[in-house]
Specification:
Layout: H1 6-13, H2 19-31, H3 35-58, H4 80-135, E1 142-145, E2 152-162, E3 168-178, E4 181-191, E5 197-203
Antiparallel strand pairs: 1-2, 2-3, 3-4, 4-5
Helix pairs in contact: 3-4
Length: 206
């Protein structure tokens, strides 16, 4: 399977690759069974397109015939018109491929941006939770907000107790909203031997 995309093949045919990339591409032509066929297909499409455009852009203006009102045979279609249609179709198909690739790249970039914001939300949320559970007095809400994503929330310790393993545990209320979506939960977290508060139970308020 060739590793070269359509843009690189077109650049090779147009002579736009530098000397190093051109040499690597030509070595790939000898080892990649699929690559020569792709190059040939693009070369043929380019030739058809140039043949179709040449008469219109560089040909001489034909002399206009004298008016003739007699009944005559239907005019014949110039031989280059079918080639022009084929070339135009190939050009449209090529444009569609490039459009898809550009659209896919934009979508991937947007997905990466969303993932980065969600990761930042998670870091801020967890840091606020640890701080509230470790240091805040019961009944004191601690708020957080990520200005990049618009997400915000709060953590409020409710009461403190020791479990059967003699660990400090705290009941808490927790809420979060992003845009028009919101969620409120309550739970219990206990402090482990490393000083981290671990959630032991979560339940939704009725």
């Amino acid at each position: 399977m060739t590793a070269y995309d359509d843009a690189t093949i077109i650049a090779y045919l147009d002579g736009d690759l530098d000397e190093t990339d051109c040499a690597e591409f030509e070595r790939a032509l000898e080892t990649d069974a699929a690559l020569p066929a792709r190059v040939e297909a693009f070369a043929e499409s380019g030739a058809l397109l140039r043949a179709a455009l040449a008469p219109a852009t560089h040909g001489p203006m034909p002399a206009l015939p004298a008016p003739d009102f007699a009944v005559s045979a239907a005019p014949t279609r110039p031989a280059w018109i079918p080639r022009a249609i084929a070339a135009a179709f190939a050009f449209v198909c090529l444009g569609s491929v490039f459009g898809y690739l550009v659209g896919q790249r934009v979508a991937d970039r947007d997905d990466a941006r969303v993932a980065s914001r969600l990761e930042a939300d998670s870091r801020i949320r967890e840091a606020t939770f640890q701080r509230a559970m470790e240091a805040e007095v019961s009944g004191t809400p601690v708020r957080w907000r990520n200005p990049d994503s618009g997400a915000e929330g709060l953590v409020k310790p409710v009461r403190t107790f020791r479990n059967k393993n003699d660990q400090f545990c705290r009941q808490y209320d927790r809420s979060e909203s992003t845009g028009d979506r919101g969620e409120t939960v309550s739970g219990i977290a206990c402090r482990d031997d490393q000083g981290q508060w671990r959630v032991r139970a979560v339940y939704y308020a009725q």
